[in-house]
Amino acid sequence: MINNLDFITITVNSVIVKSFEITSEQKIKHEKWIGRNHERKKLNFVMSWVSEYAWKEVLGQHNIKYVYFGQYIGPVELSPKEDFIVWMNQRKMSLGIRSRTYEQLVKYQEVSYPDDRIRLEKDIISDYIIISSIDFYHDGNAEVRFWGAISKEDFLKAYDKAIKKFSPSNQEQFRLIALSKFSFKLLLKILDIVDKHH
Fold first, then answer.
1. Which tens digit of pLDDT belongs to each residue from 131-152?
2. Where are the domains of the chain?
3. Which of 6, 19, 72, 177 suits a disulfide with 184, CB 3.0-4.6 Å?
4. Do residues 51 and 134 lie in contact, with contact meaning Cβ atoms separated by under 8 Å?
């Protein structure tokens, strides 16, 4: 059971969700994602973009200055290394968003993270990682919940102790980080202390 039910909720309308579905198809074709489950990969892209869109809404509600790098289509090696950049006392700080379906997050209480990305790209892991869940409804809308955040330092400590698991649907190894490692209080603190528009 999840004891802490604190989260920030944003609804993304069906028109936006549909546009992401179309773009994900274009991305899969353009980047030639061969040998992977097509529908699973499409869902992964849509979930990423829907959660990032919702996070932009949260930042806007708090009048926070940010730069967003999302919805890239092209060679993987040229893709942006951050999801979001914000500033704290004029110092740049990167934020990354991870998402699971609401059903999976509640059931497993774990956040999956690609193992090779951590092993090979530790230097580009975001300063803070934020976990979200997504519900897709029959009317086409999506509801995004932001559950908490973890610092890069604490994330890497958790990674060292995390279980490694192979995902048949994604065809890659993941590390499973407990949801309890993510703090809602830290998420609220980030929103409070980062630089705002004047």
1. 999 999 999 999 999 999 999 9
2. 8-193
3. 6
4. yes
The pair of three-digit structure tokens given for residue 145, joined into one six-digit string = 């919940």
pLDDT digits (tens, 9 = 90+) for 10-64: 999 999 999 999 998 887 887 676 655 777 888 888 999 999 999 999 999 999 9
pLDDT tens track for 71-94: 655 455 545 566 899 999 889 999
| Structure tokens belonging to residue 188 | 């609220």
Q: What values do phi and psi take at 131, rounded to 5?
A: -100, 135
Burial 23-46 (b: 16+ CB within 10 A, else e): ebeebbeeeeeeeeeeeebbbbbb
> Whole-angstrom distance between the N-terminal and C-terminal Cα of the chain?
42
State how far the Cα of 125 lies from the Cα of 155, in Å rounded to an integer: 9
